[in-house]
Amino acid sequence: MKEQELSIIIPIYNGQDYIFDCLSSILGQKDSSQHEIIIVNDGSTDNTENILCNIAKENKNIHIINQKNSGVSVARNNGILASHGKYITFIDCDDMVG
Fold first, then answer.
1. 75 and which of 20, 42, 50, 69 could share a cystine (Cβ 3.0–4.6 Å)?
2. CA gap 47, 55 in Å, rounded
């Protein structure tokens, strides 16, 4: 895979109430389609996985990793392992960027 300039890693656990707004704020940024967005679903038991799948269908730069619940540190580390960016940043699922 081609190296991206920026990899945005978002660990999430049961964030169905927040993830749409979080991703909308990221995707609304200039040049957001040139960034890799890695979402690590840390064993969510709510509707998070379905929401992520629907958003990822419309955005080719969003990649989803599903794992059993292992905690935010493991989720971040798995995101790092999957990233291809020259730079890496982390955003929590209930954050918005502007």
1. 42
2. 13
Question: CA-CA distance, 92 to 95, in Å (whole number)?
Answer: 5
What's the rounded Cα separation, in Å, for the pair 69 and 72? 9
Q: What pLDDT digit, counting tens, does each position of 1-47 carry? A: 566 799 999 999 999 999 999 999 999 998 888 899 999 999 999 99
Both tokens assigned to 36:
């890799």
Distance CA 95, CA 13 (A): 14
Backbone conformation region of residue 92, classed left if phi is above 0, alpha if psi is from -120 to 50, else beta: beta
Quick one: angle between helices 19-27 and 48-58, nearest 10?
Answer: 20
The type of residue at 1 is: M
